[in-house]
Amino acid sequence: MATLFKYLFIIIQFVCLCVPMHAQFNVDKYDKLNFLLGTLDEYMGYDRSFVPARGQRSYQKVDIFYKEELKNTFFMQDLFKTQYPDLYIENNFAPKGIVLFSPKLSQEIDRFFEYKPSGNYSLAGDTVYAGTIKSDMIITEQQKRSYILGILVRAGYKKDGAGVYTVGLPNAGPKAAFLSKLLQELACEDVQYTISQGWIPVGHYVRFKPSIQVGEIIDDAYQLRSQIAAIDVSTVAFKSNGRLSARFKQSPLDIWRLTLDN
């Protein structure tokens, strides 16, 4: 009996260790690709370069993250790695230096954007383009809900005492305007899109009272954000070239085996 309890205790420990490493995405309720589109960083537009060059971070990029968003990076990689095994992470150790790359997934993303020259250039002198989402590509209710979920998970939101929610998207005017449009289409009330000039970055804010449907999306966003926050990245390490060295020094399965051996 004592041996049985020992093994049960070990199994429970193993499960608990596994939980913080993954967040659960409801693929029956939401579409992964449209969720990803909602999460994308569109600060001054979704930037893209179509010419490969050394140090070019916009070429075949899926998204770019602040160093504090490492958990988000791993979540997105885990969400798509089966379908897109060419996903990989690089880090140049700048405050906003973590990039998720994928030749195949980046091509899929490009179908949803209209690109125009941004006026910026890569270090090699190549044109960097700014992308704006094609609103006619997100038309079904599931696509709209998934896109909104992506924005709420990545950008977050605030709620005041009157039940009004606010989403801030700095320097991302087209994305904020599109979010405002989607919220109205999903029956939210008092939807307002405002711009705060005189600030760097320029503040783009969408305020609204959620409909029942969007209220459910907010609840799901809260759960998903909580799960992502619980992902364990304490042992993540990067090589000097920016490539991922080791995600976990010791896997839960190895810890379990060591416990059994002892």
Attribute tags:
262 residues; alpha+beta; four-stranded antiparallel sheet; three-stranded antiparallel sheet; 8 helices; 12 strands; globular
Summarize the structure.
The protein has 262 residues and is an alpha+beta fold. It has helices at 2-18, 32-39, 70-80, 103-110, 141-155, 173-185, 212-229, 252-261, and strands at residues 46-48, 61-65, 88-91, 98-101, 113-121, 127-133, 158-159, 165-168, 189-196, 203-209, 237-238, 244-246. It has a 4-stranded antiparallel beta sheet with strand order 7-8-10-9, with helices on one face. A 3-stranded antiparallel beta sheet has the order 1-6-5, covered by helices on one side. Strands 2-4-3 form a 3-stranded antiparallel beta sheet.
